């Protein structure tokens, strides 16, 4: 099956800085593809190249198999939902949605029909005569998507469209966007710096850093099986150390961190005795217990003192300090057994070797 | 406390009220009264509409009146056509320092008095002027060419004088247009022309209207440029007012002309606002 969107060795240089460095990926039809990365990593540059506002320095962009490099933005079968939506303030909602159809010389009665249908689809029937500034943030969002979707693009690009919304609405729109994507059955390419947006909505996520893709995979791949230290550190939270390998048995490692903490861990890439490694352990994989007996099955066990409790509802953490002075972040279970936990208490923590991922130190 | 506030309010308001009444309202009432009287004999006046009748029946007066109106509208239109791309370039295409420099370049000619600027045009356009000499030197003309004292020369002068007053409001409104709105226009299938027509011009409308009103009024009330560049062949209505007041000491007819001009500019500005569907409040506020 031809992918809806395919980028081959795409690169963009501005003077001496490389914004996008030989990026290749393909997006299968009907899927939700996200590009996730910190600001300034080049994700907006990729999107602007796909939309046609920037000319790639080298490489190719193919949509449904055909190169679009020589197609101007207004002829590409790609539409974009802008960061601040860019609805036309001088037009009504219906005129906004009908704009692209008017440009394509669709007959008037058909435009009216399609606009009504699109408004129905986004759950806002009968608001066509209103002005843009009479709508709420979430409604504008949906109108911006409808304005693109009436043109039936092969690929819809979304450039951090949820950034301007407040937290509650953003959570709601995540679910809604995913539902809209399923309803329209169109390929969505979504850029964001917010990992939870990417993780919740996407079929495939590309993690981008300094102009390159670090890893492309499903949300579960990125979370459970990161390929690089950057991905391990960027997706989710992690306790991280640097250490030296003391013994290697296949994938299983015995190592000691720089502060002197001995640990059993699992290697992601090839490591041998004496190598320096980066170790990541997620706070939610560490088991908290009152007595060491409850931790018998774990490869790594520590006796610690609670130094601080970071209460944040379901995402509460405790900071604990072990006997060598290393501070670890551990998720605080909300099952009730640690409700009375306070600063200075002694607790036992443990985690399996499989949950401690280990990478060769990146230089 | 309340009394103090009242006194402060009155004190602040006084200069405005004085200015409005002494310089604008009272003179205009006086002018209106003068325009409505007719001299019967030495020192004896009668109230009548005779001056208006004279102004509206004398073909020279009437012709100059309409000519001034149409030429002013034309000058406004030409200024808009030239200023729009300039303003668009300054507001949207130029970045950083270049933007400031270009804006300053528009402003610099206004450091020189209008008289000197108009003389500049005379030096360029007159029979023994730069352009005439250049044409002869190149061989395109075999005798001196007079380019002054016609409608085109006057139009050049009017447009030149008004440019800044059109560019400034246009740059301000165009700058407030988000670049991504223009990009969205292209992204959804628009070409340059349709983006200009459906997005950029509607957005710039307040600037277009306010710039046009200012330029139109400046052109209509301009005296210097039509006199110096237009000469005797291109009479301007302000010249007729000047003639009646100063040359012929006929204040009655001069005042009548003044009122006709005031009425004309009010009607045309009103029409312009009606045509674009805007209120004066929106445009100026």
TrEMBL record, chain A:
- Which SMART domains does the annotation name? AAA
Q: Does the keyword Ligase apply?
A: no
Write out the GO cellular component annotations.
Answer: ATP-binding cassette (ABC) transporter complex
Q: Among the record's GO biological process terms, what is one?
A: quaternary ammonium group transport
This protein is called what? Spermidine/putrescine transport system ATP-binding protein
Q: Which PANTHER family match?
A: SPERMIDINE/PUTRESCINE IMPORT ATP-BINDING PROTEIN POTA, SPERMIDINE_PUTRESCINE IMPORT ATP-BINDING PROTEIN POTA
Q: Which PROSITE patterns match?
A: ABC_TRANSPORTER_1, ABC_TRANSPORTER_2
Organism of origin is: Tritonibacter scottomollicae
Q: Does the keyword Transport apply?
A: yes
Q: Where is the ABC transporter domain?
A: 5-235
The molecular function GO annotations come to: ATP binding; ATP hydrolysis activity; transmembrane transporter activity
Source taxonomy: Bacteria, Pseudomonadati, Pseudomonadota, Alphaproteobacteria, Rhodobacterales
Q: Which domain of life is it from?
A: Bacteria
From TrEMBL, chain B:
Keywords recorded for this protein, A-Z: Cell membrane, Membrane, Transmembrane, Transmembrane helix, Transport
| InterPro entries, alphabetized | MetI-like, MetI-like_sf
The ABC transmembrane type-1 domain is annotated at: 65-272
**Matches recorded under SUPFAM superfamilies:** MetI-like
Chief localisation class: membrane
Q: From which domain of life does this come?
A: Bacteria
Pull one GO CC term from this UniProt entry: plasma membrane
List membrane-spanning regions. 7-29, 69-90, 102-124, 152-171, 204-224, 253-273
> What GO biological process terms does the UniProt entry carry, in alphabetical order?
transmembrane transport
Query: Where is this protein found?
Result: Cell membrane
> Can you tell me which family this protein belongs to?
Belongs to the binding-protein-dependent transport system permease family. CysTW subfamily.
What is the protein's given name?
Spermidine/putrescine transport system permease protein
According to its UniProt entry, this protein's organism is Tritonibacter scottomollicae
């Amino acid at each position: 099956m031809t992918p809806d969107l395919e980028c081959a060795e795409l690169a963009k240089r501005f003077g001496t800085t490389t914004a996008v460095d030989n990026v290749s990926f393909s997006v299968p039809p009907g899927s939700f593809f996200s590009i996730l990365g910190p600001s300034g990593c080049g994700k907006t540059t990729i999107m602007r190249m796909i939309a046609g506002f920037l000319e790639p320095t080298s490489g190719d962009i193919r949509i449904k198999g055909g190169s679009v490099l020589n197609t101007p933005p207004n002829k590409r079968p790609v539409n974009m939902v802008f960061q601040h939506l860019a609805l036309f303030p001088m037009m009504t909602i219906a005129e906004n949605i009908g704009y692209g159809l008017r440009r394509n010389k669709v007959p008037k009665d058909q435009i009216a029909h399609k606009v009504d249908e699109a408004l129905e689809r986004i759950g806002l029937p009968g608001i066509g005569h209103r002005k843009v500034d009479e709508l709420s943030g979430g409604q504008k969002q949906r109108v911006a998507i409808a304005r693109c979707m009436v043109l039936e693009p092969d690929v819809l690009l979304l450039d951090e469209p949820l950034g301007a919304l407040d937290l509650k609405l953003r959570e709601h729109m995540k679910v809604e966007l995913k539902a809209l994507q399923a309803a329209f059955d169109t390929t969505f390419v979504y850029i964001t710096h917010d990992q939870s947006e990417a993780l919740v909505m996407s079929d495939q996520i590309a993690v981008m850093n300094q102009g390159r893709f670090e890893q492309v995979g499903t949300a579960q791949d990125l979370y459970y099986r990161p390929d690089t230290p950057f991905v391990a550190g960027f997706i989710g939270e992690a306790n991280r150390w640097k250490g030296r390998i003391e013994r290697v048995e296949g994938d299983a490692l015995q190592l000691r961190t720089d502060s002197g903490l001995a640990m059993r861990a699992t290697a992601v890439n090839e490591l041998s005795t004496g190598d320096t490694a980066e170790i990541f352990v997620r706070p939610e994989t560490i088991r908290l217990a009152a007595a060491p007996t409850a931790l018998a099955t774990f490869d790594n066990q520590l006796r610690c003192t609670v130094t601080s409790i970071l209460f944040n509802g379901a995402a509460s953490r405790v900071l604990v300090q072990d006997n060598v002075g290393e501070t670890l972040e551990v998720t605080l279970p909300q099952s009730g057994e640690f409700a009375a936990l306070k600063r200075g208490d002694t607790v036992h923590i443990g985690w399996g070797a499989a949950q401690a991922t280990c990478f060769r130190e990146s230089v | 406390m309340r009394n103090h506030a009242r006194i402060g309010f009155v004190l602040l308001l006084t200069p405005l009220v004085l200015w409005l009444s002494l310089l604008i309202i009272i003179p205009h009432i006086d002018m209106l009264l003068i325009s409505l009287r007719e001299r019967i004999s030495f020192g004896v006046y009668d109230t009548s509409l005779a001056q208006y009748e004279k102004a509206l029946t004398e073909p020279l007066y009437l012709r100059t009146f309409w000519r001034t109106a149409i030429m002013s509208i034309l000058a406004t239109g030409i200024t808009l056509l030239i200023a729009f791309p300039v303003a668009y370039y300054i507001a949207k295409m130029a970045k950083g320092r270049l933007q400031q420099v270009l804006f300053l370049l528009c402003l610099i000619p206004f450091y020189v008095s209008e008289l000197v600027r108009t003389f500049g045009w005379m030096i360029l356009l007159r029979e023994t002027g730069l352009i005439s000499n250049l044409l002869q030197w190149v061989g395109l003309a075999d005798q001196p060419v007079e380019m002054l004292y016609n409608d085109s020369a006057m139009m050049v002068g009017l447009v030149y004088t008004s440019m800044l007053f059109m560019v400034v409001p246009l740059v301000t409104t165009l700058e407030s247009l988000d670049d991504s709105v223009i990009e969205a226009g292209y992204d959804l299938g628009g070409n340059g022309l349709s983006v200009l027509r459906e997005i950029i011009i509607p957005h710039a409308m307040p600037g277009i209207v306010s710039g046009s009103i200012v330029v139109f009024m400046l052109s209509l009330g301009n005296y210097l440029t039509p006199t110096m560049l237009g000469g005797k062949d291109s009479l301007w209505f302000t010249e007729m007012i000047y003639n009646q007041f100063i040359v012929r000491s006929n204040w009655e007819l001069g005042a009548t002309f003044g009122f006709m001009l005031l009425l004309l500019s009010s009607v045309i500005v009103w029409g312009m606002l009606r045509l674009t569907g805007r209120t004066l409040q929106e445009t100026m506020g």
